[in-house]
Amino acid sequence: MGIEKLKNFITGDSGEELEEKVGDDGYYTTTKQEVAAQTTLSGNKVMLLEPRAYSESQQIADYLKNRTQVIVNMKRVTPDQAKRIIDFLSGTIYAIGGHLEKLGGGIFLATPNNISIEGTYSDDSKTDKVRPSSKKTNDDDDNEDDFF
């Protein structure tokens, strides 16, 4: 019996649930074997999505709940819709313990907590722009979606 315990310790095959229990909803209560099988089957997929309306934000959240990384391009929505989508995704990401990173103008990487993001990304376009601080001009309306 002692050899079996040692073997399980070395291989990590204890059959116990992972430590990342999130809640009673059952999204993250899974065994190590299930995670290994899921990783092998899904191949660590990345979804590339360009929502055209706020109503598509639930689909993005469903991918995240199923542990799929999502790159979201906000170029096809208005700045107001993009803000609403990001707000919705921020709540989803908070709930699952994931991460949201801006990759560029209107492009975001949303990842569940089983994916780690390393490194930094600098946006050089911000240093090239000069905005007047005291006067609002018509050109400032074009910069409204700088965040997106």
Keywords:
148 residues; alpha+beta; 6 helices; 4 strands; 38% helix; 14% strand
Structure description:
By secondary structure, the chain is α+β, with helices and mostly antiparallel strands. The protein is elongated. Strand 1, helix 3 (57-65) and strand 2 form a beta-alpha-beta unit. It has a 4-stranded mixed β-sheet, with helices on one face. It has helices spanning 2-11, 32-42, 57-65, 79-96, 125-128, 139-142, and strands at 46-49, 69-73, 99-104, 107-111. The chain has 6 helices and 4 strands, in the order ααβαβαββαα. Residues 16-20 and 128-145 have low confidence and may be disordered. It has a domain at 43-113: 2-Layer Sandwich (Translation Initiation Factor IF3), CATH 3.30.110.150.
**Assembly classification:** single chain
Query: What is the CATH architecture annotation of one domain?
Result: 2-Layer Sandwich
Largest sheet: 4 strands, mixed
Helical region count? 6
Q: What is the N-to-C order of secondary-structure elements (H for helix, E for strand)?
A: HHEHEHEEHH
* C-alpha termini separation: 58 Å
CATH superfamily of one domain: SepF-like protein
Task: Give the strand content.
Answer: 5-15%
Q: Please state the CA-atom Rg, rounded to the nearest Å.
A: 21 Å
Cα shape: elongated
Mean pLDDT: 74
User: What is the spatial order of strands in the main beta sheet?
Assistant: 1-2-4-3
Helix content: 25-40%
CATH class of one domain: Alpha Beta
CATH-defined topology of one domain:
Translation Initiation Factor IF3
Number of strands: 4
Please mark out the parts with pLDDT under 50 across 5 or more consecutive residues, or reply none. Answer: 16-20, 128-145
Return the structural class: alpha+beta
